[in-house]
């Protein structure tokens, strides 16, 4: 029986494919990537978009992997537009020519979120594991030339966090309307590279100052969002604004997840949209109801005054670090497992960081 207090989802992350021309060490996609031959067809995706709109989804985020790797992306964007959804394209920019950007704008893309790895071309290419930096700059030009609003998104970590101001200068120069600097979250492949990616405490303190200076320098310019590193905080992030609260994710095979990283929770009874309607999965499935609200919480969250604000932190992080998705997020200073996070922090020294392992390509 559906809980009458559960609201319709606002947004859906549409992972069209796991294929990607980049090999980022912080990739939050699962260790096992979906093969091309297992991806849903255009017809199946069209039906999912229709179901999502009927369910109440108003924001559709086309993502991946690299969504441009799917030749049917323009058709699916057109379908989303016909349904009346706001369409966001989340892309590496590789392959986003001026013609493609114009076509996608005409079909219905409302906004583009473009990733950059660094301000320095050689380091950007090194972090991406591919020579893509120059193509990304061209893609940014293509987006603005097509009249689309642009968000530049940069994942921060030990190798690039010292260049925050140069990164912001570059993004402003590219015409970004919004700049998002997000410290790495350690999921999927990124967790494997955690020791190589974690910044030092001094780097983080310097980055906070750099963000402050960049905001002052570009006052009146693009919105600058900085997502803090929760391992270094005493309280966890309010992940996903609460489990099964506002967003859902559909993977390249049609698995429906309460958050993009939730396939890491191996105890979660994940359902697939090819076997059950999307609305039933949203309202009635065990996976979506498992950590909704506060009823599932144990102490210390159960009686904590902050439980309705941070929702007990992140379920995926709790599972990955403790093996129990219902545990308090170990990033919380009140968690009985906080020592797991402190141990990871203790490994971060001022000496050279370990080399990161680039992500390999999707198997054919
Ligand atoms: Fe949040 Fe739970 Fe920590 Fe309280 S104990 S601050 S609800 S994670
Ligand atoms: Fe899955 Fe936080 S990333 S709940």
From TrEMBL:
Q: Which GO terms describe its molecular function?
A: 4 iron, 4 sulfur cluster binding; cyclase activity; iron ion binding; oxidoreductase activity; S-adenosyl-L-methionine binding
The enzyme class is: oxidoreductase
Which cofactor(s) does the record list? [4Fe-4S] cluster
Q: Which domain of life is it from?
A: Bacteria
First and last residue of the signal peptide: none
Report the SUPFAM superfamilies cross-referenced here: Radical SAM enzymes
Q: What is its EC number?
A: 1.21.98.4
Q: What single Pfam family name could you report for this chain, choosing any that match?
A: Radical_SAM
Record SMART domains: Elp3
Q: Which Gene3D superfamilies match?
A: Aldolase class I
GO:BP terms for this protein? pyrroloquinoline quinone biosynthetic process
Spell out the reaction equation it catalyses.
Answer: [PQQ precursor protein] + S-adenosyl-L-methionine = E-Y cross-linked-[PQQ precursor protein] + 5'-deoxyadenosine + L-methionine + H(+)
Q: How is the cofactor bound?
A: Binds 1 [4Fe-4S] cluster. The cluster is coordinated with 3 cysteines and an exchangeable S-adenosyl-L-methionine.
Where are the membrane-spanning stretches? none
Which keywords annotate this record?
A: 4Fe-4S, Iron, Iron-sulfur, Metal-binding, Oxidoreductase, PQQ biosynthesis, S-adenosyl-L-methionine
Please state every residue range assigned to the domain named Radical SAM core.
Answer: 6-222
Which residues bind [4Fe-4S] cluster per the record? 20, 24, 27
Query: What pathway does the annotation place this protein in?
Result: Cofactor biosynthesis; pyrroloquinoline quinone biosynthesis
Subunit structure, as described in the record:
Interacts with PqqD. The interaction is necessary for activity of PqqE.
Describe the task this protein carries out.
Answer: Catalyzes the cross-linking of a glutamate residue and a tyrosine residue in the PqqA protein as part of the biosynthesis of pyrroloquinoline quinone (PQQ).
Q: Which HAMAP family match?
A: PqqE
Assigned protein family: Belongs to the radical SAM superfamily. PqqE family.
**What is the recorded name of this protein?**
PqqA peptide cyclase
The scientific name of the source species is: Streptomyces cellostaticus
